[in-house]
Design goal:
It contains 15 helices and 18 strands. With 452 residues, it is α/β, with parallel strands linked by helices. It starts with 21 loop residues before the first helix and ends in a 5-residue tail after the last strand.
């Protein structure tokens, strides 16, 4: 029987970006845009009325208010650079965070490279990081609207960089020898008027992964940003694969080739934390010969867990397959690290191990994963706020949380009142649900602030 299902989407089939940008690109448009404040964005209806009454055309008002809103949203990713940039909605969603782009540029400069082509540059976030690090940059983008945005952003923040509208494959075929390195951020979504669809097949990326690999096979310094869910079997043996997280969110995996690798075949996790007064970066790489084996707590050791520390490795460590490498690194420092279970990405130590690569929790008790027993625990502890994590069990944390907290805090009476008459906040509990061997358990834990 014929298969009449829709084919898997290809990023190459995307529609041109629909953001209405042209009025904001004019001198008058930029001047008006730069005059707007967050207060104007907060009340767009009032701002539209005021600007229209001042004689500005409806198209210009709509364009600059859209850009002002995108600038405000972009600060999370790009900091104060956002206030001098232009955006498209799709481009902002896919743009690289500033801290990631700046760190990435350091790898190019450390390799002694002087010029880079950013092929498929989008709104130019990566190109800005490269150019502001002192590299000579040419950025290529096929979508004319997005290319215009990138050009405006380079003109404002990196005037030495050049933006060309064109196809990345054609540009590389004609000019790859003109630069020291090639950087790719292949499109991994198919954008259409009805929305976007994620593309999973590397050959449906734009450009396809095979094209990137072909250039790397010629010995060129090549880097390619891909989605963090890339299966390990798609990682070429000659590449270094680096999974990157920012503040606990795994944002990408980068394949590095030739002059840009630390060594072929390496798997690495880069954990960036911007929540501290000074942002930090911690890097873990795998060991020659493969990841080491660690002993497991297992079902037999569950009753002895209270008092130990359960560690949840950062998502980049897990994605890179480096959980046991992390435990082995701790053992070199004198700790004894075990897996909670051979199939779960949790580590257990007798004492806290300060590490930016994992978050630590002191185990208070081991409960059966039973709703009645856990509701009794919630009532006895006076818990009104509950965090639920899980590994290896078919449970929806949000549904279990709702069931356990149903009625929590009712009937607290005078004991549930503060001296000033307000209701008490109640206790805050944390559960880690897991299947360890043949047992389904709920570990009662306390987060260790400052330990990961």
């Amino acid at each position: 029987m014929a298969d009449d299902r829709d084919p898997r989407p290809s990023a190459e089939d995307s529609s041109p970006d629909a953001t209405h940008l042209a009025p904001a690109l004019t001198g008058a448009g930029r001047e008006l845009l730069d005059s707007l404040t967050d207060a104007d964005v907060a009340d767009p209806l009032a701002s539209t009325t005021r600007l229209r009454a001042a004689g500005h055309a409806p198209e210009l008002v709509a364009a600059v208010l859209t850009q002002a809103a995108l600038r405000r949203a972009a600060r999370t990713k790009l900091g104060d650079l956002a206030d001098r940039m232009l955006f498209t909605r799709d481009g902002l969603e896919q743009a690289t965070r500033r801290v990631v782009a700046e760190r990435r540029a350091e790898r190019f400069t450390a390799a002694g490279l002087r010029s880079v082509a950013d092929l498929g540059c989008g709104i130019g976030a990566d190109a800005l990081g490269l150019a502001r690090a002192g590299l000579s940059v040419v950025a290529v983008e096929r979508d004319p609207v997005v290319a215009a945005v990138a050009a405006a952003n380079m003109a404002a923040l990196a005037p030495g960089a050049r933006v060309e509208e064109g196809d990345a494959l054609a540009w590389a075929g004609a000019h790859a020898d003109d630069v020291d390195a090639l950087w790719f951020d292949p499109a991994r979504r198919r954008i259409s008027s009805s929305g976007s669809a994620r593309v999973f097949d590397p050959e449906a990326f734009s450009p396809p992964l095979s094209f990137v690999l072909g250039l790397a096979a010629e010995g060129r310094a090549v880097g390619a940003k891909l989605g963090p869910g890339l299966p390990h079997e798609h990682v070429p043996a000659e590449a270094e694969a680096e999974w990157v997280s920012v503040d606990g969110d795994v944002v990408e995996v980068v394949l590095w080739f030739n002059a840009l690798t630390t060594a072929p075949g390496v798997r690495a996790a880069a954990v960036i934390d911007t929540r501290r007064p000074r942002p930090s970066v911690a890097v873990l790489r795998d060991r020659p010969g493969g990841s080491p084996a660690l002993e497991s707590v297992g079902e037999a050791g569950l009753d002895a867990l209270p008092g130990c520390v359960l560690h949840e490795p950062d998502g980049a460590v897990i994605r890179a397959g480096l959980v046991t490498d992390l435990g082995a690194a701790w053992e070199e420092g004198g700790a004894v690290a075990r897996l909670l279970d051979p199939h779960l990405a949790y580590l257990v130590t007798e004492a806290p191990v300060p590490s930016p690569l994992a978050r630590g929790y002191r185990v208070e008790a081991v409960h059966p994963l039973d709703v009645k027993a856990l509701r009794r625990w919630v009532r006895e502890r006076g818990i009104t706020r509950l965090d639920v994590k899980k590994r290896g069990v078919d449970v929806r944390p949000e549904e279990l949380r709702a069931r356990l907290l149903a009625g929590a805090g009712k009937g607290a009476g005078k004991k549930g009142r503060r001296a000033g008459g307000g209701a008490a906040a109640g206790a805050h509990g944390t559960l880690v649900l897991a299947r360890v061997g043949g047992r389904r358990v709920a570990l009662e834990v306390t987060p260790l602030d400052g330990v990961g």
